[in-house]
Amino acid sequence: MSTPPSPAPEPEPALRFGVNYTPRRGWFHAWHDFDPGLAREDLAQIAGLGLDHVRVFHLWPLLQPNRAVVRASAVDQLVRLVDLAGECGLDVLVDGVQGHLSSFDFYPEWTRGWHHRNVFTDPEAIEAQALLLRTLGRALSGHPRLIGLQLGNELNNLVEHNPVTVAEVDHYLDTLLGAARHGLGEAGGLVTHSAYDAAWYGDDHPFTPEASARKGDLTTVHPWVFSADCARRYGPRSPEVHYLAEYGTELAAAYATDPARPVWVQETGAPEPHIPAADAPDFARATLLNAAGCAPLWGVTWWCSHDVDRSLADFPELEYTLGLFDSHGRPKPIAEALSTTVAELRTAAVRPAPRTTALVLDCTPSTRSVSGPGGAFFDTWMRLRQEGTRPAVVLTERVKDAAYLAARGITELIEGK
User: I want to staple 199 with a disulfide (CB 3.0 to 4.6 A). Which of 151, 158, 195, 393 is the partner?
Assistant: First the structure.
């Protein structure tokens, strides 16, 4: 009697490559007079680069002008945008509470002035955000092009005006992640949250690496070259800059309790003057190739699709130049570099093996900055990388966990400095 053949192993999921969508005409103020035709032009340009998804944002005050009211017409606009992206062959992640976008913070009036509420700690403010996410989830549930629903963009940017503790952040995230799941229902989709780099590098920041790496369906990282002055500290063409997204992915993987948890490089970009325009194509290529060498990587989503038009006032200079397309819709050299590199990675379709050597990170919440640019651990990891090692990262409390190390494929540990 012959032995039946073993079932074929499940194929590795393909890496995802996309862009954060910034409307060319009017930036996110375009939501005030949403034009589906103009949005479709932008989305078709994005799809023309060979990208497979977009991340999209509505504005919180327009969606929820009153604590008890989510405007059906604004939700319909958002669903229409997801439809348009699908018509162009793009999948979509929707961010819910905006919140913070490109140096501007958008609060509904019911959180401000006479009605001021701390958005992280006030029970009624939390429930209002949960209502918004449940409503968006129900409206988007089952959409064939939906990747999932994210709580909002870099919500930890709001902590300066909304003081909060680590425990209160955990309660806030747990409540809103549950609301998003409830809204999406059985149709499912990813449920995620995002934070800017202070969550990883900021000493005693209330949004923690553990929250990023253990809550939601995957870990999102936003490894920006201006965080901790990385590009200015090391130089725009430096290995530290070119390996930054790779490093952020490996650092995030260390904090996860699930060794197989995916990591999404959800924002990275080439802001001038930190990355001069002439260096942007090489930066984009290096960032994608190096990040693709990380086994946990889910995908990379570039920031952003279109430059901010200079007719709009009061943006920091770097915000005007971050697009793959200029404000007239013309592709920039970085767009070609990104498109070509994505095509190469898809053609190769080879997922990297787990990293067998790991650098041990020993830090406390008050010394987290050692793992950021300028920190001793960061510099040691970068030195090893330049010497030819491809180091993973392991937290010191896991160094004696043989099952955990085996699950990650780690056979050698190097003490961090």
Answer: 195
Q: Average pLDDT, stretch 91-114?
A: 96
Q: What is the 3-state secondary structure (H, E, C) of 75-98?
A: HHHHHHHHHHHHHCCCEEEEEEEC
Q: How far apart are CA 161 and CA 147, in angstroms?
A: 31
Whether domain 16-348 has CATH 3.20.20.80: the reply is yes
Radius of gyration of the chain (CA): 21
**Ordered DSSP codes for 243-305:** THHHHHHHHHHHH-SSTT--EEE------TTTS-GGGHHHHHHHHHHHHTT-TTEEEEEEE-S
**What's the Cα-to-Cα distance from 213 to each of 197, 221, 254, 313, rounded to whole Å?**
13, 9, 8, 36
Tracing tokens 């030195």 back to the chain, one arrives at: 383
Tokens 């160094």 correspond to: 399
Separation between Cα atoms, residue 296 and residue 66, nearest integer Å? 41
CB 292 within 8 A of CB 299: no
pLDDT digits (tens, 9 = 90+) for 261-271: 999 999 999 99
Distance (Å, rounded) from C-alpha 101 to C-alpha 318?
Answer: 13
Rounded Cα–Cα distance for residues 110 and 346 (Å)? 47
The domain locations on the chain are 16-348, 357-415
Longest dimension (CA), the chain: 81
Q: Please count the other Cβ atoms lying within 10 Å of the Cβ belonging to residue 288.
A: 24
pLDDT tens readout for residues 6-48: 454 455 679 999 999 999 999 999 999 999 999 999 999 999 9
Has residue 400 got a pLDDT over 60? Answer: yes
pTM of the model: 0.96
Residues 6+ positions from 112 with CB-CB distance below 8 Å: none
CA–CA gap between residue 167 and residue 206 (Å, rounded): 8
